[in-house]
Amino acid sequence: MKKFPVALQFYSVRDEAEKDFFGALKKVKEMGYDGVEFAGLYGNQPANIKAWCAELGLVPISAHVPFVDMMENPDLLADYSLIGCKYVAIPYLTEEYRPGAEKFGEVIEGAKLLGAKAKELGIQLLYHNHDFEFTKVDGKYALDVLYDTVSADLLATELDTCWVRVGGEDPVAYITKYSGRAPVVHLKDYVGSKTENMYALIGIDNGGATANAKAFEFRPVGYGCQDFYSILSAAEAAGAKWVVVEQDQPSMGRTSMECARMSIGYVKTLNG
Q: CA distances (Å), 24 to each of 9, 64, 66, 136, in order?
């Protein structure tokens, strides 16, 4: 199997990144990660982040940037170009922009606009799915509608293997389906199954309700229900360039950094 470079989605250790951005980057590099995918810059200047990554030998491969923020200010993409990111992903959609809602069409048109702007800066725009894209629109999954409508040169996939499975589909099959259009694959593990208010686990959409953590729990990679040997094999066949570890909330009584260390330790047993 191909030895993939492995990045950590910095959202996984956001508690540490918010307190000490450089220190968190340093810990991630020392664990053995090759790169980082950002989810906010926490007030740090792009030039400083670029310098810190260069100092540490950590590749700033990509970033998650909210769709609404990019639409309001497409020039935000220039910050990530300065840092050196090769990819920027639309990470999540609030309810009014989701499939079946009034503004889903704006997501499709916005992806075209943002994809073109990103391309001018040497960045590939990605779309990072959750489970709600596995709602059908005119008989087809909304995720497929998005990728069928926006050309591959403007929008590539960042398939989140946890959310694909929670959405009722096989991550391996979906990675394979988008062969040649899947440069970055998210490795995410979990136990349990889809439950009401589950987005409360990532601090959003809870409406004051509490998710049933016993029914669904994020886990370090290799400590849940996913078959990562098959996922990595599919990613290799699909032409993926990077894999990204993400854990939305720490679990198993471990800190976020401890979970990140457990994940890279497991990935190394499979990777190459």
A: 12, 17, 22, 40
Angle at CA 112, nearest 5°, toward 110 and 117?
95
- Reported as type and span, the H/E element at residue 72 is helix 67-72
CATH of span 6-190+222-270: 3.20.20.150
Give the pLDDT of residue 215: 80
Distances (CA, A) of 174 to 185, 190, 197: 11, 18, 25
CA angle, corner 62, sides to 232 and 211, nearest 5? 75
Burial class (CB in 10 A: 0-12, 13-18, 19+), 121: middle
Hey, where are the domains in the chain? 6-190+222-270
- pTM, two decimals, is 0.93
**Beta carbons of 62 and 90 less than 8 angstroms apart:** no
Q: Where are the alpha helices (DSSP H) in 121-225?
A: 142-149, 161-166, 171-177
Q: How confident is the model at residue 2 (pLDDT cuts 50, 70, 90)?
A: confident
pLDDT bucket at 209, cuts 50 / 70 / 90: very low
Q: Residue 227 above 80 pLDDT? A: yes
Helix (H) or strand (E) holding 88: strand 87-90
Output the pLDDT for position 1: 74
pLDDT of the residue at 211: 46
Which residue stretches of 194-246 are H helix?
A: 228-237
